[in-house]
Predict the 3D structure of the following.
Amino acid sequence: MVMLNTDMKVAETPKEGLEDYSFGDAYKAWLKKEDVKVYEEFYFPSLAEIELGPWERKGGRGAVIHIPNTHMPDDCHVVEIRPGGKSEPEHHLYEATIYIVSGHGATTVWTDQHEKQSFEWKAGSLFAIPLNVWYQNFNGSGSEPVRYIAVTNAPPTMRLYRDNDFIFRNDFIFRSRFAGEKDFFSGQGKLFKRRVWESNLIANLPDMPLYSWQERGAGGINATLEMADSIMKNHVSEFPVGTYKKAHRHGPGAHLVLVSGTAGYSLLWTKADRSDMMKCDWKVGSMVIVPGDDMFHQHFNCGATRARYLALKPGDMGLFAHSIGKRSEGLSDKSVKEGGWQVEYEDEDRELHEIFEQEAAAHGATCRMKAFIPWCTGEVGPMSERDT
């Protein structure tokens, strides 16, 4: 058939018998093959108390946390290695950053079967597995299990290639990432501008030195972590007693784990009137995941001690327009009034501060935000760095 007044030939579409085109989800297929327990929640009051199911190749039990958001760029594997146990050796083409929740042990890594190297870790340690390097995790205790979380970019990686044999059976060695350097996991590091700390192993994250980040407010300190040349971008932040951070937003996938502190909470919302606001109380070992696109979230320390959290994030996924420098300089700590992603203290809803004062009082703490909030009934606290 030729379209009227044109020379375009139009094929006739059958009225019946056509099917919707679709292809399988390689990530969901992997989850099914692993036969592992899956959670789709975004808030976990205690990582130590998450119920796990069998995951033998990981050394005992485990679960995968993956929020069913089509834009979700990462997942979280919660793994428990039985006493005296070990995982099966593995390597893969997705990134993985591991935080030890409890226990102690060691990891062996190698690209050459005859040149293995090992490093030890304990509760509070953080490290990254170099891309496609063989590794195996060992529980160092014969009486207590090890529990850790691994935040990975497995979902988009598997969905990109759609062939999991390629993901798990590819022998290519990324020598620019790891070439068997003996000091790779020494725990040493290097500081760069804008609080960037490069290290492949942080032995004790709850007590590592952090640096002033005045733009986020109220005496907060911070370090952005570059590990194993991974595209995943993590950071650790701390704020003093009786203070809270400015509200901000970004894409989904940040896994926030409280590593020190006695009491606090996070608020999350998307609507301008905050009618969908959710409150997530936390303690050491709690995890909150930013589940949605452009979701505002704000973190509050209403406890009696300093509070520190680890943010495990997917990074820019190779999109340099959202690299750490651009993000920080352009949006992350820039006011929404200027086109950024941050709500300044003077622009926040008064109710948010009133909630915080109530929570602080309930936990025996004093609000110390008077220098930033005109209607604060508390006291003046730290202005630019942690009290010493």
Q: What stands out?
A: Helices lie at 26-34, 154-161, 164-168, 324-332, 350-362. Residues 370 and 376 are 5 Å apart (CA to CA). Residues 321-329 have pLDDT under 50 and may be disordered.
